[in-house]
Amino acid sequence: MRSIAVVNQKGGVGKTxxxxxxxxxxxxxxxxxxxxxxxxxxxxxxCLGLFRPSGQGIDDVLLDGEDxxxxxxxxxxGMWLVPPGSRLVDVEKLGGGTERASLLAxxxxxxxxxxxxxxxxxxxxxGLLIVNAVVAADDVVMPVAGDYLSLTGLxxxxxxxxxxxxxxxxxxxxxxxxxxxxxxxRLAREVFDKVMEHxxxxxxxxxxxxxxxxxxxAGAGQTIFEYREKCRSAAEFAELAADVLEGxxxxxxxxxxxxxx
Length: 261
Hints:
The protein is about 40% helix and about 15% strand. By secondary structure, the protein is of the alpha/beta class.
């Protein structure tokens, strides 16, 4: 089983959109996918057509020690969701020592071999929920939108990762991808160049372009593959899923022929 946290400390960079569509892309590729919504706002459920908040969630697991899969809802073929629950914000108030950082990792240890990939949709913060996600994850995938505040959020989170490494069992794999990208915008290209300059070993090969269909499908409670399967965004998320599975990174040669050149 592989666990992946989708995170950036700045909001509005497309974390939930990425989590939902990346999750469905992986499920369509034959992976058994569990999404855990660690954001108390609970937007993952509505993006998947669950418009009524669930009475159970990851809050029961982290606060009460309940079994993780007992809180999972089947949302698509090969895809399950653990919603946040109404008490998730209370996790930030927990007392105690460093064992608080391993609550999620310990819960994942109880999962049987029926899940291939776990995705965490993380809040735009640096609190205990993020700490649990980083400690529990094998990989972090960090979307960067085409603006400097998003880039700053990435840099801050890289520092957070370094501080949390001593709490982890193994080294953390780190990945970055361009989200909500518009190649014709000069600022977006400048941000891309900065990412290439400072984070090129982590930059995944596929960028996700800004598209109205991605906002529309969330409002409809569908993934991009259900809303408009043949569109560019669906193809990009399918490629991004392959990038994550295979560790494919962006190359200088690719830039010469891509839309970011």
